[in-house]
Amino acid sequence: MAGTIAAKLAELGITLPQPAAPVANYIGYNIVGNQVIVSGQIPFVEGKIAVTGKLGAGVSIEDGQRAARICFVNLLAQVKAAAGGDLDRVKRVVRLGGFVACTPDFTQQPQVINGASDLAVAVFGEKGKHARAAVGCPSLPGDAAVEVEGMFELA
Prior knowledge:
Elements: H1 4-11, E1 29-32, E2 35-41, E3 44-45, E4 48-49, H2 61-82, E5 90-101, H3 109-124, E6 131-137, E7 146-154
Parallel strand pairs: 5-6
Antiparallel strand pairs: 1-2, 2-7, 3-4, 5-7
Helix pairs in contact: 2-3
InterPro entries: Endoribo_LPSP/chorism_mut-like, RutC-like_sf
Protein name: Endoribonuclease L-PSP/chorismate mutase-like domain-containing protein
């Protein structure tokens, strides 16, 4: 049924933004065969980074999860563009890579990136279950707290 994913997004109260334009020498996504590889997305909302700073130094796990969720919404905007506007073409969320700006002693990166993973499953159901990495790093572009990249399979 066409529009199933669009209906699910509406049910979740999610409106996809325009795909973010690259800020350096790269493209937002690349299509290789039936795979869409999406460049890392930061938690942009209306042109501004919604969650900045470091986990373990003032940014809560809940705010980190919110940032990861926003990153996944931005990933979906890129995938929608790659799929010709039809997210029902997504056969599977293959992999997510999550980067968490954090202090050296912060160890809860997986819980933070669950913000993106949980939304993937909420949107796509079983097709949203994916392989994943969640790593800490000293900083991210624009002082973003989280960045998430992804790989999706299209029909």
